[in-house]
# Entry
Amino acid sequence: MAKASNFLQSTLLPSSSPLCNLRTQPFTLSFQSRPRPGTIHCSISTDETTTKRSVEEAPDISWGCEIDSVENATSLQRWLSDSGLPPQKMAIDRVDVGERGLVASQNLRKGEKLLFVPPSLVISADSVWTNGEAGEVMKRYDVPDWPLLATYLISEASLQKGSRWFNYISALPRQPYSLLYWTRTELDMYLEASQIRERAIERITNVVGTYEDLRSRIFSKHPNLFPKEVFNDETFKWSFGILFSRLVRLPSMDGRFALVPWADMLNHNCEVETYLDYDKSSKGVVFTADRPYQPGEQVFISYGNKSNGELLLSYGFVPREGTNPSDSVELALSLRKNDKCYKEKLDALKKHGLSTPQCFPVRITGWPLELMAYAYLVVSPPDMRNSFEEMAKAASNKSSTNKDLKYPEIEEEALQFVLDSCETSISKYSRFLKESGSMDLDITSPKQLNRKAFLKQLAVDLSTSERRILYRAQYILRRRLRDIRSGELKALRLFSGIRNFFKQ
# Structure
């Protein structure tokens, strides 16, 4: 599972959520490009049949290789060397973390720059199409970078040895384990307890919707250039899966998004803090080792500060429990339908781009102030309606004042509401983990059995890590409620004692 560095370190397209600084957002493939004659305006336009098909079937791709293939990666290294890649201090090999990765072939010093992949070996929106006519059509419609690159990958892959990128594409995984490749049945069965399931369904729907938009606006008008047997929803899931897991943003190349062959064989380590970037002095894509490596030791970079759920969503792996300092779990909070002020509160939320339910990230160290603002709004009584707007604004992270919003008169009830939500979520995880041991995989094919067993293990690992965070939040909430209630009890006893003294 060798994937590339700082993908999604920054927002790649406008986010649909006001909570974009709280967590990495689900990627939205809805965009409007610069208006001009013949310009394509892509948007999500899937029908029910397309959406159902997209999440029920796993892609069946004819190019690429098995995810652990070292042979294709070795051929890639030879081709890169022949094409201008400088001599490397790392080599491809099978590894314990990631199935295949780059290992040091000699002593590497901390602070040493590595890779030096030249721009001529980097794939970007400016790359030359082997099928020049297809490339001209795509650029005539002014298709944005992501769908343009996705189409480019499919076009080059379909040409096999006729493409200069044949060796690179042959080394790409045919079907990784990222959630884009899970069927709807697998998502429902294994990730029922986790909010990452909804983000996976949204991502699959967006990718298929983007394909349908391109098909209706461009591909159907040029069937000789974009035949459906090559350009279809399955191949687009593959190409977008490659982009989600390998595309990097290079700040020193004006923020350009690029696929960097060889560099994307590096695996992620939660403790590493080094990323890919373009080095102007050496005119190559490099990273700087943040620690020394011995010969034979696997070399790592960081894919960014992502939760275990986000790493599974895009990259198809879950770090060992407790090893990811950026780990978090999304806790869903909802307004109460029987609330007399339900409509007023919902209107206040909608005004600031929020909904019910609304998810907030909970970390092992605590939760954001926005979560508490939302909880205050949920439990606030009718006589606090003048504060509804303030609470909703604070929950949306749009408020520049009152960051530490507090309402002492309803704090206990708000904390109890969050605790109840935590415990509801914990019960879902516990039920899944209890039942997972006896799940009938109902598969006869050994290959499919291995896949199902592996997906189930990924789900178990994710559920265990997310439940661990919720257990910690439960402990903190119970202590805070105990302190509040014991303080109230002391105050009542003191008041009762004073009253009895004056009665004497």
Summary: The chain has a mean pLDDT of 85. The two ends are 78 Å apart (CA to CA). The longest helix spans residues 446-503. The first strand starts at residue 90 and ends at 95.
